[in-house]
């Protein structure tokens, strides 16, 4: 579980995060949604420690990140897996080498133990036959799968995904959503996804937090979101034709 408590963050006097609190539970796909420029990425970066908050705290299963020792921060970082927008694979490495990369940097496993782990996670994401391919030789959806395998290969406890569906066709996007949801349950991960994608929200939004201009305006889940009251959220939702159709609106 990750608890975000009263996070405030400003840049050059401009408030970007205004007293944000949320609880992201384990074994659940937690989503942060909102329009562009509303503070989602800054919040994600603050949670993972790339930014320091002006005030407030972030607790990883009770361990406060920003005020803890360098050693503890290092330990928590080792438990974090990130799936970046655009996958961010190393072009010059094979699929298997990409997945192996965190193990080379952060683990003292033997080479054969690393082989076993890489093979296990490649198989889990359905890429056992693509181990020796280069990222340029596989599709965008397969690249995301490599990114997912790389994110969890260190037995991660926390999985952060920044726009995991960007650039994918709807069917592939659906498959990636399902995979993220499945592994969240399977490995009891605390998963936090930043997304604009309403299809993802309606498929796997077990906890959804909506941000507007640096504020948390609403929280709920996929079953309650279409009845949410805040105007900013309604405007966000009903700008999507499919959602309007679903609600029987024009
Ligand atoms: N390093 C920075 N220095 C100064 N301002 C920043 C910095 N990073 C983000 N901002 C500002 O913080 C605000 C929120 O940006 P953020 O990237 O979090 O939005 P977002 O909701 O993730 O948008 P998008 O969906 O387009 O990625 C914006 O006004 C942005 O210009």
For this entry, give a set of tags.
alpha/beta; 37% helix; 9 helices; globular; 250 residues; four-stranded antiparallel β-sheet; six-stranded mixed β-sheet; binds adenosine-5'-triphosphate; single chain
Secondary structure blueprint with pairings:
Elements: E1 2-11, E2 14-24, E3 28-33, H1 40-47, E4 55-60, E5 63-64, H2 70-78, E6 80-83, H3 95-106, H4 111-124, H5 140-152, E7 158-162, H6 170-186, E8 190-195, H7 198-204, E9 207-212, E10 215-220, H8 231-237, H9 241-246
Parallel strand pairs: 3-8, 3-9, 6-7, 7-8
Antiparallel strand pairs: 1-2, 1-4, 4-5, 9-10
Helix pairs in contact: 3-4, 3-5, 4-5, 5-6, 6-7
The protein binds adenosine-5'-triphosphate.
Describe the structure.
- The protein is an alpha/beta fold and 250 residues long.
- Helix content is 37%, strand content 25%.
- The strands form 2 sheets. Strands 6-7-8-3-9-10 form a 6-stranded mixed beta sheet, with helices on both faces. It has a 4-stranded antiparallel beta sheet with strand order 2-1-4-5, with helices on one face.
- Helix 3 packs parallel to helix 5 (140-152).
- Adenosine-5'-triphosphate is lined by residues 11, 16, 34, 36-42.
- Keywords: ATP-binding, Nucleotide-binding, Transport.
- InterPro entries: AAA+_ATPase, ABC_transporter-like_ATP-bd, ABC_transporter-like_CS, P-loop_NTPase.
- This is ATP-binding cassette domain-containing protein.
- One of its GO terms (molecular function) is ATP binding.
């Amino acid at each position: 579980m990750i608890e975000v408590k009263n996070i405030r963050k400003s840049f050059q006097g401009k408030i970007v995060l205004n007293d944000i609190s949320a609880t992201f539970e384990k074994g659940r796909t937690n989503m942060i949604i909102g329009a562009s420029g509303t503070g989602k990425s800054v919040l994600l970066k603050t949670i993972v420690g790339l930014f320091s908050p002006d005030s407030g705290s972030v607790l990883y299963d009770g361990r406060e990140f920003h005020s803890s020792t360098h050693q503890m921060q290092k330990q928590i970082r080792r438990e974090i897996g990130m799936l970046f927008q655009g996958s961010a694979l190393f072009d010059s490495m094979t699929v298997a080498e990409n997945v192996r990369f965190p193990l080379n940097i952060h683990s003292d496993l033997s080479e054969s133990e690393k082989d076993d782990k890489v093979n296990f996670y490649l198989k889990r994401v359905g890429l056992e036959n693509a181990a020796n391919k280069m990222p340029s030789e596989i599709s965008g959806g397969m690249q995301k799968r490599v990114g997912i395998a790389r994110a969890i290969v260190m037995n991660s406890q926390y999985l952060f995904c920044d726009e995991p569906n960007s650039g994918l066709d709807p069917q592939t996007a659906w498959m990636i959503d399902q995979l993220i949801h499945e592994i969240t349950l399977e490995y009891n991960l605390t998963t936090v996804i930043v997304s604009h994608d309403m299809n993802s929200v309606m498929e796997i939004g077990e906890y959804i937090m909506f941000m507007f201009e640096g504020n948390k305006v609403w929280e709920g889940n996929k079953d309650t979101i279409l009845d949410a009251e805040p105007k900013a959220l309604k405007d966000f939702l009903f700008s999507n034709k499919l959602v309007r159709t679903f609600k029987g609106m024009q």
